[in-house]
Each structure stands twice: as structure tokens, then as C-alpha cells.
Amino acid sequence: MLKKRFKLARERTETGGIIVKISPSFPDHIVLLDGASLTLENLARVARNPHAPVALAETARSNLHASRAWVETVQKSGEPVVYGVNTGFGSKASVSIPKEKLRELQRNLIMSHAAGAGDPLPIDAVRAAMLLRANTLARGHSGVRAEVVDTLLAMLNKGVTPWIPAQGSLGASGDLAPLSHLALVLSRGPEEDPEELSGQAYRLDSETGQWELTGGKTAMERAGIPRLILEAKEGLALNNGTPVSTALLALACYDARQLVKTADVAMAMTLEALEGFSAAFSPEIQRLRPHPGQVETAENIRRLTENSRLLDRRPERVQDAYSLRCHPQVLAGVRDTLRFIENTLAVEMNAVTDNPLIFPGAPSVNKAVSGGNFHAQPIAFAGDFLSIVLCEVGSIAERRIFRLSDKHLNAGLPSFLAANSGLESGLMIAHYTAASLVSENKSLAHPASVDSLPTCENQEDHVSMAPIAARKARQILENVQKIVGVELLYAAQALDLRLRSEPGGDAAPETLFGKGTAAAYRALRQKVAFLDRDRPVYRDMETARELVWSGELLAAVEDAVGELR
User: Fold this and answer.
1) Which of 103, 402, 428 is nearest to 236 (CA)?
2) What pLDDT score does 207 carry?
């Protein structure tokens, strides 16, 4: 079944504004937030379909009221001393703030911390972060009014997405800078409210389906959403936590599931094109080393190549090279690591990650407890793990591309799969591009999680760098999508050459290829023609990447063989 996605493209208008076009395709069933049951699928659904409705569960609303009631007593009485409610922040925690200044304290926090840099985060990542922040607050331990969560959900439901610079977060004390850019749009000062203090936001035009970048105040006004004057604790509850890091990693992990399956498809096509051996994928071998990911990968290859007449044609070769034969063993670690990452995300997406936390039922007078749930080290590690395993998906795919391109290794096919090799270069340079992406990925995969720099007068003396780990993982994911797209081009070209070499030269793909590989071949050939003479290959490469990214090719395969593991 097709994994639902959305297409995103930016273009500049005559006035210099940015318009982002979006084509939603997720189903529109309502997502109820209770702080405890958000799934990766629902996160992606809301992030990538601005028409997917979100609402706050009534149980969560009552929890919000309970913790807020205690914060309001502190706000009115000035006692007890509670970090971030009536004190300064970070190393200024010992500075007491008079109760008449508590609103100003929260407003100053958001304005001063909106200090991000770089290009903006993608709209889907920001929407995911908004949903995660709302889900955290819904647990009722952050001390905010229900109106804060309602405003976040109204922004999601009415198509207002804050413009957030990608750089500037250390992943502890949470994603302070990016979340402050979010809160700039959501909140306002008690008196003056100039546009320049409202940040920027994309607003979805319901008639055109386009996103247009405006000032935050303008976007909220056009959507009919009142901006909030933040009360005690609310600014800190909005900008202290891990939702940006988690959002980036969650969407990358969601897409990685699909990419890994598509990598199996590309590998199966290559295996057939090189007239490889099927024995390496037999259940008997996998049972003797039963890593779950290995078993699943081998099963996928068997299903994809079922009924293939190209396999096992060359018994004199005895066995295939590692990039073919060891694919299940390499992808074992990938799939099993993905499971670990998904488990980490399942916890983090439903966790309370700000500070301090409010426990309304606690017997002590001070019901606020300071801790470190904002520290994103679990997400940092998971992001680095995802980078590492995705690198290997690209690396082993590149080795197969190389084998297909080399006349000494490709079982009798021409150099670079060119129809008139020598006069024409065929797919030669497409392999160069894949190789460059593999090398780039190796640089990007250096772990961010092992780095730390102390900040805030050494109060925050160990940080996670989780957003850097998550952003790198997302970039590597995009690079590997391109690499797998190149392998699909090579494999389809090679399969065409095999078809043409059959007696009669007009065999149907289904008579020669496996059940799944034939479906993949057909899906690719609907968009990319056989390379019968040299042409600019970048267009074909982009089309192939699009088939990988959108899930269209995988959907065609799964329609033929059922859902892959």
C-alpha cells in the first residue's frame, strides 16, 4: 500500500515572498492528543497533511487545569520560589522576579531566545514539532492553560506554520532557539504588538493550496487565531524541551522504513540483471543466524524474485560478490537498528520534556520539581545511529551500481550499460554521482552525540547536540534516496539489455523477471525510457529519486507481491 506523503516545492513570487505548494494525500481522520498515545504514523499524518484535524482529549484538558491552578496560586502569592515561574532562567535561577513582572519575564524569555540561524526548517518538521509540543503539554505537568494547547492545535488545523531557522539548538535545555521562534508567532506582548516582534510564519491558502510566508502577526490574524499573552511558566513550557529534534528524527525514521524496502527492490533487480544466485537468500541460511532484520530482508528478496528465469543461470561462478550475497546480513543491522530508533521515538513522542514539572497531587507545598527531561541525549544517539545505518544502505547500493557499470563484472553487459559503448557513455557519470553521495554521507555520519560545549555560565555544562544529529540523518536519508534511484536506473537498463538478448528479442518482463522486480521495472519504465542513446541523465535521476521518495514504485511492487517486511 502506498505510503502517504506530500510534495513540497518552493518558488519565489514577484514580490520576493516564498510560496510553498503542498499536495496532501493522507486520510483526514481526527488525531486526538492525550499526551500518551501519539504514534509515528499519526505524527507523519499531521505533519504532512494540513487538512488532518487534531483535537485535545477531554481527559487531557482536566489534567491541564489541575497543574495550571497551582501555578496561578504561585503567580498571585509569589510563593514558593519556583524556577522559571518567579525566578530567572539558566544561571540566573537564583534571581527572584517580583510577581508584577512575571508576564514580562515570559515575554522576554521568548524574544531573547529567538536567536536561530540558517535556512528554515521544512514545514513538515515544524508541524511535527508543534504537535509534539502540544502532546507534551497535554500531559498536564507543564503548568500551562488549556488555551496554550488550543492555540497550537488551531495553528495546525488552520494552516499557520512558524518559520523556524534550522540552526541554533544544542539539544539541552531542549530546543530553546527554534521553539522560541515558534512561540513568537503564538504569543504577543501585553501592550505594543508590532509585526517585527511576531516572527514569521507560513499560512496555507485554503483556495490555492499554497503556503505563503508573512509576518507571524499577519498569518495569525488571517487565520483568525488570537495570539496569547503568556502567563507565568508558559513561555518556558513552550521553548524548553525536545520536540524539534524529535520531529526531525521521527520523520526521517518514518521515511527510512520505506527507503529500506525500496533498497531491497533495487537490489533484487540488480541481482537478476547480474544473473546472480538465489541460494544466499534461502530460509535455511537465515535460520542459522536469525537476526530479525536478516530474516525479513532475505524473505523480501525471495518474494521479489519469485519466478525469475534470470537467477542461477551461471553455476560456474559458484557464488556472488558480497554486495549481492551479503545484502540480508548488512540490512539486518539496518532494520534492527530502525526498530530500536522507533522504540526510542515512541517513548519520546509521549514524554514530558520541559522543566520544572508540576505534580498537583504532591503532598509538599512546592509542587514543582526541577529535573533534566529536556536533555535530548536519547534522541542524539538515535539520530547518529540512523545516520550510520542509512550510510550503509547507500554504500552497498553504490557497490552494486559499480558492478553493473563495469564490463568485467556485469556478466556480459556493455560498459556503463551504453547501447553503443565508446561512442556513448551511457550511465557512466550517474555512478560518479552515487559515489560522491556515498562519500558525502561518510562525512555527515560523524556522530554529533559525542560532542558537548558548556553554555550559560557553565550551568548547562553538558549538552546533547540532538538537533544536529537529526538534521544530518535527514540529509543522509535524502542522499540515499538519490543513490537508490540511480541503482534503479542501472538495474532497469541492465534488465532491458537482458530482455533484448533473449531469443526473439521481444520477451515480456513478466516472462523473465521475478514477480516483484517486473512490477518495479514497469513502474520505472512508465516514467523513464530505456537509454537507447546518450541524453542528459539528470532528469532521469531526478525522476527515479521521486519514485523512491514518493513511495510510488514501492506501492506498485507491494500491489504485486503484498506488503514487504
Assistant:
1) 103
2) 84
Nearest to 54 by CA among 145, 137, 149, 121: 149
Which amino acid, one-letter code, is at 141? H
- The helix/strand/coil state of 254 is helix
pLDDT digits (tens, 9 = 90+) for 183-228: 999 999 888 788 999 999 999 998 888 999 999 999 999 999 999 9
Closest CA to 379 of 326, 325, 343: 343
Span 386-404, pLDDT tens digits: 999 999 999 999 999 999 9
Q: What angle do CA 450, 456, 461 make, to 5 degrees?
A: 35
Q: Which residues pair with 21 in a beta bridge?
A: 9, 210
Active-site option among 83, 202, 490, 521:
83
Q: Mark whether 521 is an active-site residue.
A: no
End-to-end CA distance of the chain: 12
Task: Return the amino acid letter for 194.
Answer: P
What residues contact 349, with CB distance under 8 A and at least 6 apart? 38, 39, 40, 43, 132, 135, 246, 250
Residue 243 CA neighbour count, 13 Å, CB half: 32
CA nearest neighbour of 129 among 147, 156, 167: 156
In a domain, 1, yes or no: no
Q: What are phi and psi of 89, to 5 degrees?
A: -115, 155
Which of 204, 223, 241 finishes a domain?
241
Prediction pTM value: 0.93
Distances in whole angstroms, Cα of residue 405 to Cα of each of 165, 262, 361, 488, 543: 41, 21, 68, 13, 20
Residues 198 and 335 in one domain: no
Interatomic CA distance for residues 474 and 166, integer angstroms: 12
Reported confidence tier of residue 318, pLDDT bands at 50, 70, 90: confident
Neighbour-count burial of 85, counting CB atoms closer than 10 A to its CB (0-12 exposed, 13-18 middle, 19+ buried)? buried
Quickly count: other Cβ atoms within 10 Å of residue 333's Cβ. Answer: 16
Q: How confident is the model at residue 21 (pLDDT cuts 50, 70, 90)?
A: very low
Please name the helix (run of DSSP H) or strand (run of DSSP E) that holds residue 390, with its range, or none: helix 377-405
How many other C-beta atoms can be found within 10 angstroms of the C-beta atom of residue 522? Answer: 17
CATH number where 521 lies: 1.20.200.10
Place of cell 510563593: 79
CATH code of 26's domain: 1.10.275.10
**DSSP strand pairing (18-22 vs 210-215):** antiparallel
Find the domain containing 147 and state its range.
8-241
| Structure letter (DSSP) for residue 152 | H
